[in-house]
Structure formats: C-alpha cells, structure tokens
C-alpha cells in the first residue's frame, strides 16, 4: 500500500534518520517505537504527506486513502459536535452540490435531442451512482452510530465542541477520522487523553479495521493488544520486527547484546592495530605492514550501539516527616456546577501508605475531586486532610509554574539535595534531557518537555503524599519505568489519576471508579478491577436472561449450587466456542467480500468499466453486504468479549 525507499531526514546538518526503507502492507498493524526525539512523529508526518524528507521516496499505491491523527488537534470552537463530525463528509456535500447543479441544468435545458444533453444525462447518472455508492443518503445515521460508539449521548450532538474536555475533543477528531474510512490509519499517541473504556473501544475498532494501522504510543498494553509488527527507529536507522511489542523487547535485548559483543571485539581490534602501528612506526623493516594497518584502520566502520537502557536507574524520594494515619477522609462530599452534579455522596478514607487509582470516563470528576483535596475549588460536605500531610501535586498546569529564565539543569540543581546531586545528569537523561538538552532554557521547552521537567522536580521534593494527575502523558516507556519504580518504593501515600493500565499494574492496591455521579471503591489492582467489571457485566447479562437464577432457593444445599455453577460454566464455554466460530466465519466472509470489491474496482478503473452501470450496482450491493457483515462482526465480538 505504501512503499518507503531510501528515506533521509536532516535538521541542520545532523540526520534524524537515513537510508530507511520498508513497506506497509494491507492489514499491517505497526507499532512505531523509539526514544523521544528519534523521529517517530516526523515519520508519521512524512507518511501523511505533511512533511517532505531530505531524500528518498514515499510511494502510495493509486487510490489509497490515508487518515492521520496528530498529537495536537485543531478543532473549531464555532461548530457543534455533529457539525464537526459532518466535516468528514465534505466530499459528499461537494458531490451533492455538483449533482444539484447538473439536475438544475437538465431541468432548464430544452435541447433534449442534442449530443451534449445526452452526455449530461450520462454524467449525471454516473455521478449519482457514485454518490449513492459512497453512502451519500445515510451519512448522518453513520455519524450517529460512530459518536454513540465513542461514548457521546444524543444530547451532546448539538453542544459546541468548546464545552468538551481534551479527551472528548480527541474523540470528535477520532470520529471524523474513522468516518472517512481511510485505507491507512496513522495515529500519534491516540490514547493520551482517552479513558480506559474508550481505549478498549479503540483497541477493538483497530482489531476489526480492514486497513493498515501505524501508531505511535507509550501505552504498552495498548500496542501489545493492537499491533502485530514493530518498527524501531534507533541510531538513525530502523529495525523491522514482524512481532508484537513484548516479543520485540526480548529480540531487541538479544540484538543489543550482539551489538555490544561486536563493539567490544571491534574496539579490541582497533586497539591492537593502533598498538602495532605505534610500536613499529619507525622501523623500516615493518613500513609496509604499518601502512597496511593504517589503511585497515581507516576502513573500519564504527559499530553503533543502541541507546543505553536507563530503566535501571533508581530514584528515591528524599525522606520527609511521617503523616497521620488517614491523609484524606471524604464525608458526603458533593461538587456541582449549577444544575450539573459532577459527583455526590462521596465517602472514602485513604490510609497512610496506600497507593490508589482514580479511574473513569473523562468528565466524570477524577481531576475535580483532586482539586477539592487540594482546596483549589469549593465543594459541599466534609473533606479532612490528615495531620502532617505534605502534598506533592503533579498536574499539567504544574509545568507553567517553572522559572522560564533558568536552564533545565539549574531547575533540578536548585531542588536536589545530598548525594542525589551527583546523579542529576543521569536523572535528566532518564527523562530525555540528556546531553545538550540539559542546557536549554525552560522558556524554549515544549509543553511535553516542561511536564517532564516538572515531574523530575516533584520527584526530588520531600513529601509524604503524592497526587499524580495523568503523569505518563509525555513520558516514553523507559521514563515511565523509572517513575513507576520511584513511586513503588515511595513509602508515603499516593493517588494516581491515569488511564495507563501498564503503569497502574503492580503499583496500586485499590481503585476508585468515577461514573454517574458516584465514586465506587474496588479493592485490588487495576487488572482485578477490569476483570471484575467484565464479570459484573456478565452477571447482569445472565440475570437479564435468566431472572429465576438470581434468587436460588435457600433450602438448596451448597453441593447443588456447586453443581449448578459447573453446569453453568460448561454451558458458557459451549456458547463461547460457538461465538468464536461465528466470529471467524464472519471475518472470512468480510475478507471474501473485500476481495470481490477490489476486483470490481479494478474493472471500474478501466475506460470500459467506468461507463458500465451494472458494475456500480454490484459495487454498491457488495459495500452494503460488507457494512452489514461488519456490524454483525462487531455485535458478535462484543458478545464474545462480554462472555469471556
């Protein structure tokens, strides 16, 4: 679908990467990985045609459409959600306007027997068929289905986009992209502002997508669940692995070990050669051999080693005074903006040393409760902060509080105490401020860089209660590992507001779920919570199907209940196997239909085929069958996941 050959990109005189060649095939799901600054976003922009390489060719197969979701969105605040989503169908509106003009011309003209009139009729028929084939009459229903699938209520459709948070605005842009149905999806950090439920929805969508996907993401669980191929940009080159991310990590480690051995052997060879030259440089009898060794040395191409893995770096929070036993107690806390109640009757107690997660859809009040705890906004009810609690708070706006006129190094040097001062360069390197980047002034840093710097600053301050609001949004995987280890070893209390399952896994022991104005407590880690949610949904499904099983007779012995449970499990497994077969059959059907569509489109691209109306009718019927099959596939897959 897309062929990349001999790609080179330079900024100034330094190449970002060079001699890069690879091919993107249909149904490839590619994770583009590498350290921050390696060129991942640049590569996506080049593939999207938004940036030109210094050298090389990007060849896109004829007729292939490309959809690109950038990290930073530009949404008009003058439109409603529905109007913004309708922008995906601009081509439909243009075609509709063109057809109306042609129709008016047909009505106005009276030269019915002329050749030009007959040509106009043919042109109108051809364009009208194309219009119907592209879904010109049912686009609004498709928009509603997509927006509803992404979590919007019908009451949201007429609200202006300016009323929505970053996460919901991302979904609007994502909806537009999906509605265009491009053959290749390019996604740059699509999960940054999505909640856990919408990330799982996006995972399912990408799995069922018939086109190719190239994505950049620091969400390890997301890329593991979606991708089947990993391309790493490292040391200005690419390494292409036909495996998912976890397998890539293992293979990458092996590759680095091989590089290290080759590097060490080369260094020994260079040293031995240099020693020989130095020893016999002035001996006439060895002159020929010395010259030979000098030429040999000049021909050696230095072996480059991939970036050092800094995830082994350990950060430890400086000691602080011990807090009281209950750092936070909420009693009947309520927050409302006018008639809109964000949450009510919040009763929770966080014990000293606990590490808890706040999760839920965007806009359900996670950050709002954090602001109540920080006493930044008024609220109803009673909220008590415990004795001797020293709060370290990280939010995106913390980056705005940095002194813009000092360097990155000086920012950290001012807060570092004791032995940690000797490790400042290592710490900065772990958070992607290595080398010359540490001498940059804060005022020239991007928003993401400022967030990382604010995070390092927080890690070095003596606190006993950490509140981290989306701490991983601008961190790469290695930086996240460093942060996660530091938080795990922190002996104080922690609240993490995050959608990153991999980051929360093994870190938190309690989850507070925000939704519908309530805050529910779940004991256990993030995957215990997700499993429980699926079980809750399954139980609800079973109860709705078999209400008589909801209240078993009290006189039934425990043995009978066990037997019933076994029988129910057996029946469930049977249903799962049946659904799996139906899903596989559906996928095979879709694949077959898509092949037929591709063959038809080849015929329609010829001069003879372009005027054959029967081909357009067949094409429209096949597209309709594909849409029905995909809808059936989605329902089956949803039912299967619910049962599992």
Automatic annotation (TrEMBL):
Region feature Disordered, mapped onto this chain: 543-566
Record Pfam families: ABC_tran, ABC_tran_Xtn
Keyword set, alphabetical order: ATP-binding, Coiled coil, Nucleotide-binding, Repeat, Transferase
Organism of this sequence: Phocaeicola plebeius
Ranges of compositional bias, category Basic and acidic residues: 552-566
SUPFAM superfamilies the record matches: P-loop containing nucleoside triphosphate hydrolases
CDD domains to which the protein is assigned, alphabetical: ABCF_EF-3
Domain ABC transporter, first and last residues per copy: 2-260, 328-541
ATP-binding as UniProt keyword: yes
Coiled coil: 569-639
Family label: Belongs to the ABC transporter superfamily. ABCF family. YbiT subfamily.
The organism's place on the tree of life at top rank: Bacteria
Gene Ontology MF: a single term: ATP binding
Name by which UniProt lists this protein: Probable ATP-binding protein YbiT
């Amino acid at each position: 679908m897309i062929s990349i050959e001999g790609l080179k990109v330079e900024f100034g005189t330094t190449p970002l990467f060079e001699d890069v060649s690879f091919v993107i095939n249909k149904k490839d799901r590619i994770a583009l990985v590498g350290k921050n600054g390696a060129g991942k976003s640049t590569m996506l922009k080049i593939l999207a045609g938004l940036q030109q390489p210094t050298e090389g060719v990007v060849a896109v197969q004829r007729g292939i459409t490309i959809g690109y979701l950038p990290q930073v969105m530009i949404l008009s605040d003058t439109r409603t959600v529905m109007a913004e989503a309708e922008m995906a169908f601009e081509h439909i509106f243009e075609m509709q306007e063109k057809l109306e003009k042609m129709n008016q011309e047909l009505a106005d003209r009276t030269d019915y027997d002329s050749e030009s009139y007959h040509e106009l009729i043919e042109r109108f028929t051809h364009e009208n068929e194309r219009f119907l084939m592209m879904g010109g009459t049912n686009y609004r229903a498709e928009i509603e289905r997509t927006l509803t699938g992404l979590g919007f209520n019908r009451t949201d459709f007429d609200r202006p986009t300016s009323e929505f948070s970053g996460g919901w605005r991302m979904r609007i842009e994502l909806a537009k992209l999906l509605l265009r149905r491009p053959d290749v999806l390019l996604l740059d950090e699509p999960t940054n502002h999505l909640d856990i439920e919408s990330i799982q929805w996006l995972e399912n969508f990408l799995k069922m997508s018939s086109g190719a996907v190239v994505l950049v993401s620091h969400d390890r669980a997301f890329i593991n669940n979606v991708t089947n191929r990993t391309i790493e940009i490292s040391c200005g080159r690419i390494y292409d692995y036909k495996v998912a991310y976890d397998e890539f990590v293992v293979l990458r480690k092996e590759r680095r070990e091989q590089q290290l051995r080759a590097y060490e052997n080369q260094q020994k060879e260079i040293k031995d050669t240099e020693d020989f030259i130095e020893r016999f440089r002035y001996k006439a009898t060895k002159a020929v051999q010395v010259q030979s060794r000098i030429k040999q040395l000049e021909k050696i191409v230095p072996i480059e080693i991939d970036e050092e893995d800094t995830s082994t770096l350990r950060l430890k929070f400086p000691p602080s005074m011990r807090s009281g036993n209950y750092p936070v107690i909420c009693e009947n806390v309520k927050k409302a903006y006018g008639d809109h109640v964000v949450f009510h009757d919040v009763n929770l107690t966080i014990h000293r040393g606990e590490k808890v997660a706040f999760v839920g859809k965007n806009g359900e009040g996670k950050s709002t409760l954090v602001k109540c705890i920080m006493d930044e906004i008024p609220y109803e009810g009673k909220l008590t902060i415990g004795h001797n609690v020293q709060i370290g708070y990280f939010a995106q706006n913390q980056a705005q509080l940095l002194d813009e006129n000092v360097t990155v190094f000086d920012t950290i040097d001012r807060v570092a105490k004791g032995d940690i001062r000797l490790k400042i360069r290592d710490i900065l390197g772990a958070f992607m401020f290595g080398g010359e980047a540490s001498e940059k002034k804060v005022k020239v840093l991007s928003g993401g860089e400022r967030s990382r710097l604010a995070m390092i600053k927080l890690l070095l301050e003596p606190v006993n209660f950490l509140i981290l609001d989306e701490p991983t949004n601008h961190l790469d995987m290695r930086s996240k590992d460093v942060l996660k280890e530091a938080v795990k070893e922190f002996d104080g209390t922690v609240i993490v507001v995050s959608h990153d399952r991999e980051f929360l896994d093994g870190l938190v022991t309690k989850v507070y779920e925000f939704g519908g104005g309530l805050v529910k407590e779940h004991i256990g880690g993030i995957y215990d919570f997700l499993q429980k949610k699926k079980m809750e949904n399954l139980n609800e499904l079973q109860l709705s199907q078999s209400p008589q099983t909801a209240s078993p007779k009290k006189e039934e012995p425990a043995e009978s209940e066990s037997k019933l449970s076994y029988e129910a499990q057996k029946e469930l497994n049977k249903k799962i196997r049946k659904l799996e077969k139906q899903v596989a059959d559906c996928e095979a059907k879709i694949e077959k239909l898509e092949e037929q569509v591709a063959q038809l489109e080849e015929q329609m691209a010829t001069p003879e085929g372009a005027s054959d109306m029967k081909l357009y009718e067949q094409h429209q019927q096949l597209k309709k069958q594909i849409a029905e099959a995909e809808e059936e596939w989605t329902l089956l897959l949803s039912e299967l996941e619910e049962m599992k």
